[in-house]
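Appendix B, record 7
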Amino acid sequence: MKLALLGTGMIVTEVLPVLTTIEGVELEAIMSTPRSLDKAEALAKQYGLSQATSDYELILSNPEVDTIYVGTPNHTHYDYAKKALLAGKHVICEKPFTLHLEEFEELAKLAQEKKLLLMEAITNQYLANFTAIKEALSDIGDIKIVNINYSQYSSRYDAFKHGEIAPVFNSEMGGGALRDLNIYNIHLFVG
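Structure tokens (predicted):
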């Protein structure tokens, strides 16, 4: 897999060191907004990526890239994923995949038609503790109530209290508790 990463935010900086440990993953390119291009260039240098740009068309036309990892704010996932699929690239997209079911269905159909991988980058259903819980359900008996909680103090919360609204808290940008951290609860429960 020859991977281009979209974004330079926290999730991308956290996933980059992990990706360097996965056999078969070649890091090729990174894209940022124009205002974060210095950060993209620094990450490219640090992780040996040959391309850092703020131009998505350059990423999509790069013949060395076969897979796009979408690690941008939630409200941009659909557009970036669709453009990647149309360009013949596989897509790994951060959660939530899209903000609307119709958008996801369109992406899934497009990926199937083009025989491309389309995958949401959420792993909780593949962890050993999930398997153990699922296997133990029949031993528990008739379940009446399920209470799932996944909470943490956001690194952006102090700024939020001072009026700085990051995309993670902006519902118009696909933010908010349900679409951010609680998506893990939804995946766990549905699984």
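Remarks on this record: The helical segments are 10-19, 37-47, 56-60, 77-86, 101-114, 128-140, 157-161, 182-190. Strands lie at 2-6, 26-31, 51-53, 67-70, 90-93, 118-120.
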